[in-house]
C-alpha cells in the first residue's frame, strides 16, 4: 500500500502539469446535465498545484487550497498507519 500510493504521487509529479488540461471531462454533472459542479476542474487544479503553478491551479478550481492539503493529510495518515502495521514505527502508547 505504501509503495503503491507513493508510485501514484511520483507519477503525478513526473507527468507535465498540463497533462489533464485537454480531453473529455469525466464529471457526471458536466456529461449528463451540461452544468459545472463545485468539483469541476479539481483534478487539473491539483495537478497544477503539485507542479507549483498556483495561478493556473486557482484558475481551474479555487477549492484546491482545501482539497490538496486534505488529500495530502489523508495520504500521510494512511502511510503512517501502514508503517505502524508493518512495525516500521512503534504503535501509539496507551495512556493508563
UniProtKB/TrEMBL annotation:
Matches recorded under InterPro entries: DUF2752
Pfam families found in the cross-reference section: DUF2752
Domain of life: Bacteria
Protein name: DUF2752 domain-containing protein
Organism of origin: Hymenobacter lutimineralis
Taxonomic placement: Bacteria, Pseudomonadati, Bacteroidota, Cytophagia, Cytophagales
